[in-house]
Write a structure and sequence with these properties.
This protein is mostly helical and about 260 residues long. It folds into 3 domains: about 40 residues, no CATH class; about 120 residues, Helicase, Ruva Protein, domain 3 (Orthogonal Bundle), CATH 1.10.8; about 70 residues, no CATH class. Helix content is about 50%, strand content about 5%. A hairpin with a 5-residue loop joins strand 4 and strand 5. Helix 3 packs across helix 4 and helix 4 crosses helix 7. The longest helix is centred in the middle third of the chain and has 22 residues. The radius of gyration is 23 Å and the shape is elongated.
Length: about 260
Amino acid sequence: MEERDIQVRGYTLRLPLDVLLVASANPEDYTNRGRIITPLKDRFGAEVRTHYPLELADEVALVEQEAVLAADVPAHLLEVIARFTRALRESSAVDQGSGVSARFAVAAAETVAAAALRRAAITGEERPVARPVDLESVPAVLRGKLEFASGEEGRESEHLEHLLRRATADTARARLRGLDLNPLAEAVSAAPVRTGERVPAVEVVAALPVVDVLTEVGKRLDAAGTEDPGPMASAAELALELLFLTRRLAKDESDDGDTVSYG
């Protein structure tokens, strides 16, 4: 290879360019290795270093590149998924020997898109756009893709839901940093807002109070400049979820499964 001279079944190939070698390895729980097998690595005669995406933006870009989405998934929800995946890689409750691959984030994005598509079929929306309510499907669907540490039996869902809430809050704080959401909290306290998988985006938007901060929320979350209510409903839900997670609003589930946010 150093001479760039390779023979394949008697045919000699001359390679004028440098050669890039790519090898794969089975997960640790399949082969008890978790790395490229020694005979293959010896033939490379090189040190092979691998890692997950180092930056949050790289994780999001990977999901955007690889996921096949059945509905529009706004950038802020992809960021939630990326943060959630990275939090799982740092969690002591998850068996890090098995790891949390980039495929987990891709599958999570596709799950959220599928939930949005299902909701659109139920509500009759023409264009399905994912909203924070669709994130709730991720722990139940992808729980089987993770290996948990011993002693965590029975608490798997609790860990997943906690880390997903934290990822949602961190994303909302980062995206809405500097905005005063108190007027929104006060308005919702006076007139509760109903959301949920059975509430179409147009009804969510119609129920929102008229406060200036919501306009800025829409701009921050790429929901401005469109007549489609989906992006604005998604943006408003994220702001309401932040208010709930920071204990400035409360919320309850109604008998029909909808979520009511109130003061």
